[in-house]
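Following up on my earlier thread - several people asked me to post the actual chain instead of describing it. Fair enough. Here it is, all 263 residues.
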Amino acid sequence: MSVQDELQFTARDGIGHIVLNRPHRRNAMTFDMYARIRDICTMAGGKDDPDGLKVLVFSGGGDAAFAAGTDISQFKTFTSQDAIEYEAMIDRTLVTIEECRLPTIAALNGFCTGGGAAIAACCDIRIGSRDLKVGAPIARTLGNCLAIGNLSRFVRLVGEARVKYMLLTAQLIDADEAASAGFISELLEDRDAMLARAEELAGTITELAPLTLDATKRGLRRLQAVTPLPDDHDLVEQCFGSADFKEGISAFFEKRKPDWKGV
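Reply from S.P.:
Thanks for posting it. Predicted structure:
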């Protein structure tokens, strides 16, 4: 499949739809898919936008997931330096979503984990269906870590205590908890109802004052930028460069439980 198949983009009536479309892998992201998101979000709402977009909607293809993070096959030959460059690439994508000129809506169903949860966290509005499961169970699966930028995003959304619980227990939160925590603003009964509501919200936004929406987004970003993030390269290298990370990758593909050594 081409990246255009794996990350589908369509536009109509001022609404752009980005569909993460690898349902056979729970829509796990490839590096090319991240790059395509950057291209779309950079173009959307600009002078060269051929579609005259006013809002973007992100969703996942199939019934199982919004996105289950980055495709683990991308990590098979990772070094510590690869990990630093990977996190920088991911952050460029997430910042591009956050800095998109247009309001963004994440329409979430099924598994929304790892990089998928980070993409959702960067969108302006999140709604979900009752089968939603959110988290980053990396302490159980790969033995890597979240970059500080993503820790900050999740803490802003659901609070430090809940983030600690999710990461230190490798647990996913369900739709009700995601709603009570504020990760999603609306909870719909099923995927079809959730997608219909996302379309309705997007249509409403297309009729609102664009300068007000732009000023709101830019003002909130300025508030977030008041406190700069510290460097986290040592933390990324500690995890991605470890024998444990290599063990996590091997265990995933061998469909067994990892044997963590702490080295």
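The two ends are 37 Å apart (CA to CA). That should answer part of your original question.
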